[in-house]
Write a structure and sequence with these properties.
Blueprint lengths: L3 H7 L14 H13 L4 H10 L6 E8 L5 E8 L7 H19 L3 H7 L5 H12 L3 H8 L1
Antiparallel strand pairs: 1-2
Helix pairs in contact: 2-3, 3-4, 3-6, 4-6
């Protein structure tokens, strides 16, 4: 007989990311990185944490051609999502997913300290700064 958790997994239900335990940042860091890798575009999600968000950059629209066969370009403008290639859209979407996953893995009190950040790398770096060298983590390692 199958359990409810077996039924949920069989139906494709997405499990929650690992929850941060304040006394074991290193273990959480490794587990959540493995969790990311198991997701669609997992490597791009990890890029968001390690390298920061995708930069949209700028573009110039082609306005026409010159009599000599050159291209007339308009003023420089910021890229929009629609301007992006499929690969760039996947990277941008991975940034959003990375932020959501890391926030879901944080206890409420830590989330409240860093919820003003919207980039996965900034959130990750702040959590690391808060907990990686904390006294709780050091005491846990010594015991």
């Amino acid at each position: 007989m199958s359990s409810n958790s077996d039924d949920i997994q069989a139906s494709g239900f997405d499990t929650l990311p690992p929850m941060l335990n304040r006394t074991d940042y290193e273990s959480w860091s490794q587990r959540i990185r493995l969790y990311y890798r198991g997701k669609e575009n997992g490597l791009k999600i990890l890029q968001s944490i390690d390298q920061g968000p995708f930069e949209f950059g700028t573009t110039r629209d082609a306005l026409g051609t010159t009599p000599e066969g050159g291209v007339l370009l308009g003023q420089e403008r910021p890229h929009t999502y629609e301007d992006l290639s499929d690969t760039e859209k996947k990277r941008y979407d991975a940034d959003v997913r990375a932020t959501n996953i890391v926030l879901q893995g944080l206890p409420k009190d830590i989330y409240k300290l860093i919820n003003h950040n919207i980039e996965a790398k900034a959130i990750w770096d702040n959590v690391k700064m808060l907990l990686a060298g904390s006294e709780l983590t050091k005491e846990y390692r010594e015991s």
